[in-house]
Design goal:
This protein is of the alpha/beta class. The protein has helices at residues 51-59, 95-102, 105-118, 126-142, 148-158, 180-193, 210-222, 234-240, 260-297, 305-327, 396-408, 443-448, 456-465, 470-475, 483-497, 513-524, 537-541, and strands spanning 4-6, 13-21, 26-35, 40-44, 66-72, 77-80, 198-202, 226-230, 243-247, 253-257, 354-365, 368-372, 377-381, 385-389, 416-421, 427-430, 501-505, 529-533, 547-550. The longest helix has 38 residues, at 260-297.
Length: 559
C-alpha cells in the first residue's frame, strides 16, 4: 500500500486504521496516530510485537493489510534502522562526506569551488558568474555550510567519536576503517544531522553508552523536528518524549500524551475502567445463568408452553449479554501472564581453579591501538564474577573479544602481553553485534543444535523461559525474529551450551523488564565464572560481583 500525500493536514505523518498480521498472529490492529513538528513519539512494546514493522509501514518499506498512511507533501524524512545491514552503505565514503552528503553539501561545495575557479579566468562573464556564485553561496549558507565542521565536531563528541574517545577517526577516515560500533554511531549521527522534518529512529540507544544516551536525550528535547523512535529503553522514553504508543502482547495499541510515567498512569486508569465495565457485564451474565439453571433444575420450563418460551428468552438474553461481554475491551488481556519454569545458567563440566590470566595485553588494528593495559596483571579464579568498567573507547569490548578468541583458538595471541586460559574451560560469549550464521533454521533447531545432549523438551523449556511462545518456537526461523527476539535467543543458546565461563558484553541493552529480571535470576545462581561489561548499574547491583576492574583511557593513540 503506497503512502499517500496529504495536502491538507498540518501533521508530518498521519496513520489511519493500520493493521498488520504475520502467518502466525496479528501484530497490531486499528493503529491511529499523527506526528507534528516538535512532537516526539515513542513506540514501545515487547520484542517481536511489530515496532520495527510499524516504522517500515510508515516509511512505505512494508505494506499494511488495511489502513492508510498520509505523508505531508513537503516533509523530508531521515531513517535509522535497527539492523544496519538494511542500509545501503558505501564503505569507501569518508566521515567528512557522510555528513556533507546528508545535507546535500558535497555537490554544492564542489559547484562553489568550480565557480570560484571560473571567476579567476579572463574570459568569464563576470556579472553572470557572480550571480551564479551568489546563488550557490546562499544555498551553501542555508544548509549550514559555514558552520558545518563545528556542527560535525559537536555531533561526534556527543556520540563519543571525537579524537579523544576515538583516535582512529578523522574527517578523511573511510567507513571501512571504523569498528562496527563506531559505524553504527556514525550512522545515528548522520540521521540526526540531516535536519529532516521527520526523524525515524529504530532502537538507537542500544548502540550508545550512558553519556551518549544522555546527549541524545538532550538533542531530542531541543529539536523542532517530528520524531518517531522505537525503543524499550523506558528511562530514555521517560526523559524526552511527549507521546507514547505501546503495542501490547495481543496486538492492541494504546497511546497517550505525556512521558512514560504519565502513559503508565493513564493506561492503568483506562484498563481498570474497562475491566470494571466488563466485570459488571460478566456479573449480569452469571446472574442470568444462575437463574436459568435454578429454574431448569426444578423443571419449571417443562410445565407449560409459556414457561418454555420464558426459558428460551432467558437463553437468548444470556447469549446476548455474553456476546456484549466478549466485545468489551476489558474482557481481553493485553499482556501475557504465562508462568514459566525457573532456570539458571549451569556448568556442563567443572573447570580448573585458574580460569584466566591477563598480563599487560596490547591489541592493535593496523596502526590503531584497540587495547593497551600495561599495568594490568591479574588471574581470575573459578566462580568469580568480574566486572570491567571504564569510559567509552577504552577497549572493554575489544578485550572481551580477545579473551573469547583466546578460548576458541589456542593459536591466538595479543600483539603484546598474554591472555591465557586455564584447563577444561567451556566459554559462552554474548555481545550485541553477534549474529547467527544460519538464519534459515528454526528457533528450536538453533538451540538443540548446540546442546551437548539433544533434548527438544529441555530446549523448548529454555526458549519459553526467554520469552518465546510455543508456536514461535516451532514455526519461526531466525530471520523472522525481531532484533529483541534475537537477543533473547542468544541467551537461550548460551544457557543450552552449559558453559563454565560466561563472557557478557552489555547484555541488558535493551531488554524488556521481564526478560531482564529472568537474566538476573539466571545469573544470580550461576556457579561458574563470569566476566561482565555493563553500564547498567542497577543490573550490576543485583549480581554478586566479586571485583570491579577499571580500564583506563588509552595513552598512546597509535603506534
Amino acid at each position: 500500500m503506497p503512502n499517500k500525500t496529504d495536502h491538507s493536514s498540518s501533521a508530518l505523518v498521519t496513520i489511519k486504521d493500520i493493521s498488520f498480521s504475520t502467518s502466525n498472529r496479528t501484530l497490531f490492529y486499528d493503529v491511529n496516530l499523527s506526528v507534528h513538528q516538535g512532537e516526539i513519539l515513542a513506540i514501545t512494546g515487547p520484542s517481536g510485537c511489530g515496532k520495527s514493522t510499524l516504522l517500515k509501514i510508515i516509511l512505505g518499506i512494508e505494506e499494511a493489510e488495511v489502513g492508510n498512511i498520509f505523508l505531508s507533501k513537503h516533509a523530508t524524512i531521515s531513517y535509522f534502522p535497527q539492523i544496519i545491514k538494511d542500509m545501503d552503505i558505501d564503505l569507501s565514503t569518508t566521515v567528512h562526506d557522510l555528513f556533507y552528503k546528508t545535507r546535500g553539501l558535497v555537490k554544492i561545495d564542489a559547484k562553489k569551488q568550480e565557480l570560484e575557479a571560473q571567476l579567476t579566468k579572463k574570459n568569464i562573464n563576470l556579472n553572470t558568474g557572480l550571480v551564479s556564485y551568489q546563488n550557490i553561496l546562499e544555498e551553501f549558507e542555508k544548509r549550514g555550510g559555514y558552520t558545518i565542521d563545528n556542527e560535525i565536531g559537536r555531533m561526534l563528541a556527543g556520540l563519543q567519536l571525537d579524537s579523544k574517545k576515538a583516535p582512529n577517526i578523522n574527517p578523511q577516515t573511510t567507513l571501512a576503517e571504523v569498528s562496527s560500533g563506531q559505524l553504527t554511531r556514525l550512522l545515528i549521527g548522520q540521521a540526526l544531522f540531516s535536519q529532516a522534518d521527520l526523524l525515524v529512529l529504530d532502537d538507537p540507544t542500544s548502540h550508545l553508552d550512558i553519556s551518549s544516551i544522555q546527549w541524545l536525550t538532550n538533542y531530542l528535547r531541543g529539536t523542532k523536528q517530528g520524531v518517531i523512535v522505537a525503543t524499550n529503553n523506558l528511562s530514555f522514553v521517560n526523559k524526552c518524549v511527549n507521546r507514547v504508543l505501546e503495542i501490547t502482547d495481543f496486538g492492541r495499541v494504546l497511546s497517550f500524551q505525556g512521558n512514560y510515567a504519565e502513559f503508565l498512569e493513564k493506561k492503568t486508569e483506562l484498563l481498570e475502567a474497562e475491566r470494571k465495565k466488563a466485570n459488571a457485564k460478566l456479573a449480569d451474565y452469571e446472574r442470568l445463568k444462575a437463574t436459568y439453571m435454578k429454574f431448569k433444575g426444578k423443571g419449571i420450563f417443562k410445565r407449560s408452553a409459556s414457561m418454555a418460551q420464558v426459558g428460551r428468552a432467558l437463553q437468548t438474553r444470556m447469549q446476548r449479554v455474553q456476546n456484549e461481554y466478549q466485545n468489551l475491551p476489558g474482557s481481553k488481556s493485553v499482556e501475557r501472564t504465562d508462568r514459566v519454569r525457573q532456570f539458571s545458567f549451569e556448568c556442563g563440566q567443572r573447570s580448573g581453579n585458574n580460569i584466566l590470566s591477563l598480563k599487560k595485553p596490547l591489541i592493535k588494528y593496523g596502526k590503531f591501538i584497540g587495547v593497551s593495559l600495561p599495568d594490568l596483571e591479574m588471574t581470575i579464579m573459578r566462580g568469580e564474577f568480574i566486572r570491567f568498567t571504564g569510559s567509552n573507547g577504552t577497549g572493554k569490548s575489544t578485550l572481551l573479544r580477545a579473551i573469547y578468541r583466546s578460548a576458541m583458538s589456542p593459536d591466538y595471541k595479543p600483539d603484546k602481553g598474554q591472555i591465557s586460559l586455564g584447563e577444561n574451560i567451556t566459554v559462552g560469549y554474548y555481545a550485541p553485534d553477534i549474529e547467527e550464521v544460519d538464519k534459515e533454521i528454526l528457533v528450536l533447531e538453533s538451540v538443540t543444535s548446540i546442546m551437548i545432549q539433544k533434548n527438544e523438551g529441555h530446549a523448548n523449556s529454555i526458549l519459553q523461559y526467554w520469552g518465546f511462545n510455543k508456536n514461535d518456537i516451532l514455526t519461526k526461523t531466525i530471520k523472522q525474529l525481531s532484533a529483541g527476539e534475537r537477543k533473547q535467543l542468544a541467551f537461550a543458546r548460551l544457557m543450552a551450551q552449559s558453559p563454565n565461563f560466561l563472557i557478557l558484553d552489555e547484555p541488558t541493552d535493551h531488554l524488556k523488564q521481564n526478560i531482564l529480571n529472568r537474566l538476573i535470576d539466571a545469573l544470580f545462581n550461576y556457579n561458574g565464572t563470569l566476566i561482565l561489561v555493563s553500564h547498567d548499574q542497577e543490573f550490576v547491583n543485583k549480581l554478586k560481583i566479586d571485583k570491579t576492574v577499571f580500564i583506563p583511557e588509552i595513552k598512546a593513540k597509535s603506534s
